[in-house]
Specification:
Shape: globular
Helix content: 40-55%
Strand content: 15-25%
Low-confidence stretches: none
Distance between the termini: 39 Å
Number of strands: 10
Oligomer: single chain
Order of helices and strands: HEEHEHEHEHEHHEEHHEHEH
Number of helices: 11
C-alpha cells in the first residue's frame, strides 16, 4: 500500500502575480515603506523605500528597452550580493525580459556555455574581472562598477511609462521569468525554467504558513541576505521580502558577516547552502 503525503496550498491559484505587477502593487500601496539597506564605502547602512526602489527599477527597465532588449529576451546577470542586483532583476522583469543569473565564480568557459544555451543577448556584470569572463562569450556586456545602472537610466529617459507598461500588460504568471543554472554533479550546468508563479505563489504560501510566515510578516521584519542571489534560495528570499514587506540588508562579503549582523540587526536569515 502506498501512502501519499501532501502539503495543500494556502493561497488560491489566482492570487499570484507576475513579478513586475507584484512590485508595482506593493509600491503603490505604501511607497514610503522601507525596502532595502546597503552599505556605503564607510560601512554606513543607506536606506531605500519601496517607492524609491520601484522608481529606479522602472528607469533602468526603460534603459533596457532603449538598448533593444525585447519581450522574452534573456539578460545575463553576474554580481555579488548588492542592491543593484535587485534593481536589475526587477528591471529585466519590468521590461518583459527573462533574467539569467550567473554565479560570480563561474569560469569564462562556463559563462560562454550558459550564454549560448540560454541565448543571452546582454550581460550585466559587477566588475572588470566578471566582464572579462563574459566578454569571451561575444555577448555585449555592461559593468555595474562602471555606472551601468545609471547609464541605463539615462538612455531610457525617452521611453514613456505607457510604452514600458505595455511590455508586461499581457504577461501571465505562467510565463517564463528566469532561467537558473544548476551547478550540477556531472556535465555542464542545466538551465531550470521558472515561471513568475513559481516565485510569487511560493512567496504567498510562505507568508501564510503558521511557522515560517511568522518570521517574514512579523512587525518590522529584517532580512540580512548573504546567500548568492544567483542561487534560487537567495533569489526567493529577496523576492519574498518584496512580497511580504521585509527590509533587505545586502551583505556582499561573508568575511564581515558577523559585523553586519551586529549593525543591521536582522530578525530572520536564510543560510542554507552556505
Amino acid at each position: 500500500m502506498t501512502t501519499t503525503l501532501t502539503s495543500p496550498a494556502l493561497v488560491g491559484a489566482d492570487e499570484a502575480l507576475p513579478l513586475a505587477a507584484m512590485l508595482r502593487d506593493r509600491a503603490s500601496a505604501n511607497p514610503d515603506l522601507p525596502f532595502a539597506e546597503h552599505k556605503d564605502a564607510d560601512g554606513t547602512w543607506l536606506k531605500t523605500s519601496i517607492g524609491e526602489f520601484e522608481t529606479q527599477v522602472r528607469a533602468v527597465a526603460k534603459g533596457l528597452v532603449a538598448t533593444g532588449i525585447g519581450i522574452g529576451d534573456r539578460v545575463g546577470l553576474t554580481a555579488n550580493n548588492r542592491y543593484e542586483w535587485a534593481v536589475l532583476d526587477f528591471a529585466i522583469q519590468t521590461a518583459g525580459a527573462v533574467t539569467v543569473p550567473v554565479y560570480p565564480t563561474s569560469s569564462a568557459s562556463q559563462v560562454s556555455w550558459i550564454a549560448e544555451d540560454a541565448n543571452i543577448g546582454l550581460f550585466i556584470v559587477e566588475n572588470d574581472a566578471m566582464h572579462d569572463a563574459a566578454a569571451e562569450s561575444g555577448v555585449k556586456t555592461l559593468v555595474i562598477d562602471d555606472r551601468a545602472v545609471q547609464e541605463l537610466a539615462l538612455v531610457g529617459a525617452d521611453v514613456t511609462d505607457a510604452d514600458l507598461d505595455a511590455r508586461t500588460a499581457d504577461t501571465s504568471v505562467d510565463d517564463l521569468a528566469t532561467l537558473i543554472y544548476t551547478s550540477g554533479t556531472t556535465g555542464r550546468p542545466k538551465g531550470v525554467m521558472l515561471s513568475h508563479r513559481n516565485l510569487t505563489e511560493h512567496c504567498l504560501n510562505i507568508e501564510r504558513d503558521e511557522h515560517f510566515g511568522a518570521f517574514v510578516t512579523a512587525p518590522s521584519p529584517r532580512l540580512l541576505l548573504f546567500l548568492p542571489m544567483a542561487h534560487v534560495f537567495g533569489r526567493l528570499a529577496m523576492t519574498l521580502s518584496v512580497s511580504a514587506g521585509s527590509v533587505v540588508g545586502f551583505a556582499p562579503d561573508t568575511k564581515v558577516l558577523a559585523d553586519d549582523m551586529k549593525t543591521f540587526r536582522p530578525t530572520w536569515m536564510v543560510v542554507v547552502p552556505r
